[in-house]
Amino acid sequence: MNPNNKAVFLDRDGVLNEEIGTYVWQPERFIVCPGVPESLARLKAAGYRLIVVTNQAGIAKGLYTAAEVRACHAKLQAACNGALDALYFSDAHPSVSESILRKPDSGMLEKAIARFNLDVAQCWIVGDRLRDMEAGAAVGVRGILVGPEQGTGFAPHVADLRAATDVILSNT
To answer: Which domain holds residue 28?
Structure first.
């Protein structure tokens, strides 16, 4: 078995960086959540690929650019010692454009599964919205819901990425 065919898919806002109640696209307002670098290092040490999958509808709405999203992602990578294997974002919004990449659709996950030859039975998605859980479920990936949104019954609900990391590492 290929030891590198497992991954943790990570939603961005509310999981990796602080949710500020509006779009996060300015690097100076992009604040990495406490415990994220350490959690990612623990997952990486356990052999997981780390893949960000984030909806960025503000691009479709003309509020910011893909370059500004990439600047935030560069700040995230720097804070996490380059631990992230891939960062995918959907620039669509239903009011402007349709896309199978936008969660709850699973296009971003499908791209990464193909690119890294992942075994979905060994993968997880960590997100703060039901749409993250739905995207994972569509491709057979187990989900963990973090933060204030209430659970669904089909995914564990924990406080933050630190707690989600504990769940993942205790189930491997």
So the answer is: 7-170
Considering its fold, how many domains does the chain have in total?
1
pLDDT in tens, 85-138: 999 999 877 777 778 888 999 999 999 999 999 999 999 999 999 999 999 999
Q: Say how far apart CA 57 and CA 91 lie, in whole Å.
A: 5
Q: Is 11 a catalytic residue?
A: yes
Does the model's pTM come out above 0.90?
yes
Q: Is residue 1 part of a domain?
A: no
Distances (CA, A) of 148 to 46, 47, 70, 100, 158: 27, 29, 27, 26, 9
Residue 2 belongs to a domain: no
Question: Is 91 assigned a catalytic role?
Answer: no
Least confident of 19-33, 37-51, 104-118: 19-33
- Can you give the CATH number for the domain in which 27 is found? 3.40.50.1000
